[in-house]
Each structure stands twice: as structure tokens, then as C-alpha cells.
Amino acid sequence: MLLKIEFESEIPIYIQLKNSIIDGIAKGELKEGDSLPSVRQLASDIGINLHTVNKAYNLLRDDGFVIMDRRKGAVIGKNSSMLSEEFKEKLGEEIRPVIAESYCRGMTKEEFMSICSKIFDSYCKEK
Amino acid sequence: MLLKIEFESEIPIYIQLKNSIIDGIAKGELKEGDSLPSVRQLASDIGINLHTVNKAYNLLRDDGFVIMDRRKGAVIGKNSSMLSEEFKEKLGEEIRPVIAESYCRGMTKEEFMSICSKIFDSYCKEK
Amino acid sequence: MLLKIEFESEIPIYIQLKNSIIDGIAKGELKEGDSLPSVRQLASDIGINLHTVNKAYNLLRDDGFVIMDRRKGAVIGKNSSMLSEEFKEKLGEEIRPVIAESYCRGMTKEEFMSICSKIFDSYCKEK
Amino acid sequence: MLLKIEFESEIPIYIQLKNSIIDGIAKGELKEGDSLPSVRQLASDIGINLHTVNKAYNLLRDDGFVIMDRRKGAVIGKNSSMLSEEFKEKLGEEIRPVIAESYCRGMTKEEFMSICSKIFDSYCKEK
DNA sequence: GTGGTCTAGACCACG
DNA sequence: GTGGTCTAGACCACT
Questions:
Q1: What residues of chain C have any CB closer than 8 angstroms to a CB in chain D?
Q2: D126 confidence band (pLDDT: 50, 70, 90)
Q3: Is residue B127 predicted with pLDDT exceeding 90?
Q4: A48: which chain D residues are within 8 Å (Cβ-Cβ)?
Q5: What is the spatial distance, in angstroms and rounded to an integer, between the CA atom of A12 and the C1' atom of E14?
């Protein structure tokens, strides 16, 4: 699996890293039981700080995507029953301003839905 | 129009403010030509620093939502033809990780689309 | 002569006004001896403050483009021998950063000179 | 590279700073990949506030001259394909009043073009 | 009165 | 140590 980090981006590296791994899980490239590279390994591979990788891993652990094992390091957990009401609320708050801006800029509902649909399909089909 | 700012939020105040105003435009509460409160007025109303308001206004100006009129201060601009390819790209990059996480957490495409649809309708119908 | 003022511009109105009048002189629309509208007249025509017009007129007077006559108001002066070394210096300082940026952005000398040439011709020919 | 700031000038410090850096790029003193001093460093060197430096850096970033690297701070970006139509328009509007005034003051086209030519060459030759 | 500029100092997120 | 955010208060240019 290939990790792309944009150091120029305004998005923090540890968030990009977290998103990349979730993206990998969504695409099926990372499956339950797969182990992630060690913090040190990944940090030196990408050329970033240890703390940065650590922070990403911890976030993934907090969200249930990853389980930290003392021997095996970080392994992908079983992603089930993670669809809490809390997440749905957070989701709504997150996409609301995006939708508002899209609407203001003149995007039709159809176009917006179409874009979402394509992205969603890019995960569903490959699995 | 009522502006809600959550000071405890991790989202910067000036971003919340910007989003609130775009939300107001999307809802039709703010229309082309309407003038916004002065930076000082709004700052004291909300209880924040005027520079924070200023930053939000400048971002809105850069995005074309607001025009700084030398006589009237900040007024809502005409939101037309702002649907650039650049924005669509940014939009895709912004929602992709949100969709990836939703998918990983077990959300179906139908459910996700339904949530988006409701939010979109909350703007469309009131217009 | 038609005066265009952009209230949304970042350029102060009194500067725009001054530039417009100089533009009119350059185009030959305003000639020596022509009288400008009264401060009150022009202010109400454009819909701006008296002080703003006054400021523009005073600048034009300071630069020798206009002479303030107690009876006739502001009249266009004779624009000759105003090519001081001081002005040439100021000119150089003013266009240097413009040229630097143009060059950095990849504009060739030919293209830049061509643009200048066309603008210059727009004044020369009409006279 | 030496930065000259005139505190008595009517031109805002952050604009002078921005122009100085673009000037440095044009002269070839600053090349792609070179990193700029940190905002704090530069601010204390020049003797101004760090926010003023920050504003200049952010403008340069918005214009594509500089990239904010999360690890290395501000670095000079690749200045290519920045010659948009938008810039050409802005350029024309910016130099038009300068040319108009020069013409009114009796400057010949040849003299004006000669001044521009010399300034342009001062950048070209050193590259 | 408006926004724009500059200063000063604080805290935080990031790496 | 980096830039980002926020506050506070000052002065100025513009209208």
C-alpha cells in the first residue's frame, strides 16, 4: 500500500496519515488482522517524525480501526458496529458547511449527489 | 440572523463565523446586497476580537461571497458562476475521507446519501 | 466625459477619481482651460462624499494638472515641463515591483513591452 | 540576501517585504527550494512584528511564490505557469494610470519604454 | 464611523 | 522551534 503525504498541505500530516490508512481499509487493501508498519519504520519511510506517526496510530486506535498489540504492533481491527449515533452527528456537522458552500456556489443537488455517489462506489466496488 | 459560535470547539472561531455566514446565505437569510455588521459591531456582539471577525470577512471576500464596499462596509455579493473546477476538486478531496470513514464504519451508501439529501433540502426548500 | 468608480475596489476612491481625470487628460477629452465640475456637483453625481472629491482635486492641484480658480473652480492646467527627475525616480520605484512580478510569473520582456506599448498608443493616437 | 524596509514609506511594510522577496526571486538570489527565514527570525532581524512578516508570507503563498512546508517552514515554490489571464488583466489595470500620468507629464513613449527595458534587463541578465 | 495596518504578547497544534 | 489562532490596544486612511 502506498501512502501519499503532501507536506505543503494545510491538513496536518498525522491527519493525512490517518485518512490514508482508513482509505486503505475502505479500498480493501488493508484487512482485519493485517499489521501496519512499526512506528519507527513508517516514520523513516515517509521521512517524518516518530511522534507524528504515533499520533495517527493512537487516533486510529481510539476510533477502533486499529488495535495496538505489544508483540505485533498495530493491527487492523474488525470494523463492525462502529456506526454510533455519535458518529452520525459528527458526520452531519462535518458535511453541512460543505453542502452549504456547494449550494451557494450554484451546485445542483444532482451534481453534488453524483460526486458523492462516485466516491462511494470507488470503495464499494473494489471490495 | 443569529450566529452561533462554540468557543470550546476545536474549529477556529473565524472558520465557524465564515461557515455561519455561508449557511445564512444558503438558507436565504442573507441575500445579495445585504450588508453585514461592521467588524467592530459583530465582534462586540459575539464577544470576540475584531481581528477574528476581520479574518472571517476577508476569507469570505476572497471566496467572492462578500464584497468590501468602501462606503457601506461588507455586503453580500452576487453568488453566481462560482462553480469553478478548482472548487469541485477541493470538494472531492474534502469529502473523500469523510465517505471513506463512513463506509468503513458500516454505513450504507443509501444512508449516507439520505443524510446528504436532507441537508441539501434544508437549503433548497427555503429558497 | 464619463467617470467610472468601483466602490468595491481596494484602490481608494479619491485615487480612482484622480486617475480617471488624468486618464481623461491623456486621452484628450480634457484640455487646458476646461473646467471640472464643482466639488458638490461631482460628489452628488457619483454619490460620494464631498471630502473625497476635494482630496482628489487637491492632489491634482499639487501635481500641477489642475489649477484652482476662485471663480471658475477647478480648471485643467497646461501640462508641460512636469517631467521632473523626482517623477522619474518615483516612476521607476513604482513599476519595478510590477516588472519583477511579471518576470517571475514567466512573462517575456517582449510581451510586457507589448502591453505597455498598446496602452501608450491608446493615448497617443487619440490626441 | 538583504532586505530593505523603509519605515517612513507610505507603502505598508508587509507589501514592501513581499515585493522585496519577489525581487529576490527575480534576481535569482532566491531559487526554488530555498527556505526563507522563520517569521520570528525575520521579524526580529528587521525589527518588526512577526504578524507583519506572517502577512507577507501568506500573501506570497496565496500567489504561489512560496510554499508553506509543514516541516521546513516557508520555502520558495516553483514559479511556473503562473501567467494567468487574470494576472495580465490586473497588470494592465495597474500600469495604465502610471502610463497615463507619464504621458501627461510629457514623457515620450521611447523614454518610458527605455525605463521599463532597463528594469526588465536588470532581472534577465543576472539569470 | 468604516476597514487597514502594526504592535505586543499569549497559547496551542504540529513535527 | 515552526506557523496558526486569538486577544488587546493603538494609529491611520478613507468616507
A1: 19, 22-23, 25-26, 65, 79-83, 87-88, 91-92, 94-107, 109, 112-113, 115-117, 119-121, 123-124
A2: very low
A3: no
A4: 71
A5: 7
Per-residue pLDDT at B42 exceeds 50:
yes
Q: What's the pLDDT at D55?
A: 97
CA of C9 to C1' of F8 (A): 30
* DSSP line for chain C: ------TTSSS-HHHHHHHHHHHHHHHTSS-TTPBPPPHHHHHHHHT--HHHHHHHHHHHHHTTSEEEETTTEEEE----S---HHHHHHHHHHHHHHHHHHHHTT--HHHHHHHHHHHHHHHHTT-
Per-residue pLDDT 10s for chain C (127 aa) are 778 899 999 999 999 999 999 999 999 999 999 999 999 999 999 999 999 999 999 999 999 999 998 888 899 998 766 788 889 999 999 999 999 999 999 999 999 999 999 999 999 864 4
Instruction: In whole angstroms, give the CA distance from residue B113 to residue A114.
Output: 10
Q: What is the pTM of this model?
A: 0.93
Supply the DSSP string of chain A, one letter for each residue: ------TTSSS-HHHHHHHHHHHHHHHTSS-TTPBPPPHHHHHHHHT--HHHHHHHHHHHHHTTSEEEETTTEEEE----S---HHHHHHHHHHHHHHHHHHHHTT--HHHHHHHHHHHHHHHHTT-
User: pLDDT value at position D119?
Assistant: 97
Touching B: which chains, 3+ CB pairs < 8 A? A, C
Name the neighbours of A, counting chains with at least 3 Cβ pairs within 8 A.
Answer: B, D
Helices (H) and strands (E) in chain B, counts: 5, 2
**Parts of chain A with a pLDDT under 50:** 126-127
Covered bases, chain E (protein CB within 7 Å) = 1-9, 13-15
What is the torsional sign of CA B66, B67, B69, B75?
negative
At D44-59, the pLDDT tens digits run 999 999 999 999 999 9
From B87, B106, B119, residue closest to A80, measured CB to CB: B106
3-class secondary structure, D66:
strand
